[in-house]
Amino acid sequence: MPMAEESRAPSVWVRPERARRGRPALGRTQIVDAALELLDAEGLDGLSMRRLGTRLNAGATSVYWHVANKDELLELALDRVMAEVAVPSGDGWRAAATGYARSLRAMIHRHPWTVTLFGGRPMIGPNATRVLDEVLAAFGAAGFTGFDLEYAWSAVVDYVIGAAGSEASWQRAQPGTSAAQWVENLGPYLDRLDGERPGLASHIREIWMKETGDVLEGRFAFGLACVLDGLEARRPPAR
Asked: HTH tetR-type domain: which residues (predicted)?
């Protein structure tokens, strides 16, 4: 079982690793690899310490040697996938912000279980801190400082998490179903809307019916451009 004092640690990254003597052959990397396989296949509900031990053909003691509880395991898994997020450099703050936003969105699509973890625990692992340091440098180069710097990058990341999370949720809940098929399946309900809310019924038929990957991309690009336009209007003038 996990040790009580370890379970109270604010983050796996601040809890000292246990002494090497007596350490089981199973390593932290193997544990995180197996956890990611479960998370990507089945989401957060599919991951448990018991199932992880079974997948690794190891007892719970071997897993608890490296992580005190499931929260610490999720911290490690989240930091691992943050390694996939890139922040371009060299073409100005807006290009860096756009590249970062698209990279983060792509990561969320590959690992939709991450959405509800953002903000839940401190992201202070090596990959997350690398990304944050690069993002802050990009927005700092735009002239943002202090709290404005925090607000600026947060506006972008919050938009991406919301947009990509919604996209990933739809794909997970409606696998293999196109928007046109979904609208067609509304059947009598949509017919009733014609009389009750004709404007909405028309919009569903004219817009939702035609939603494709290109439309989703256009919606994301439009929203991101609006966020960046707003930040451009607020950033300090160049000295």
From this structure: 25-85
Task: Give pTM, 2 decimals.
Answer: 0.87
Contact 52, 38 (CB under 8 A): yes
Domains of the chain (ranges plus CATH)?
4-81 (1.10.10.60), 85-234 (1.10.357.10)
In the chain the beta strands, taken as DSSP E runs, fall at none
Count how many residues are written for the chain: 239
Identify the pLDDT of residue 179.
82
Rg of the Cα atoms in the chain: 22
Which positions of the chain have pLDDT values less than 50?
1-7
Q: What is the pLDDT of residues 2-57, one digit of tens each?
A: 444 444 567 887 876 665 555 556 788 899 999 999 999 999 999 988 888 888 88
Going by the DSSP 8-state scheme, the letter that residue 15 receives in this structure is S
Residue 6, number of CB atoms within 10 A of its CB:
16
With beta carbons less than 8 A apart as the criterion, state whether 147 and 226 touch: no
Token reading at 50? 């018991």
**Residues 6 or more apart whose Cβ sits within 8 Å of residue 79:** 123, 125, 126, 127, 128
How far is CA 159 from each of CA 89, 133, 175, 214, rounded to the nearest angstrom?
21, 19, 24, 19
Residue with tokens 């990254």: 13
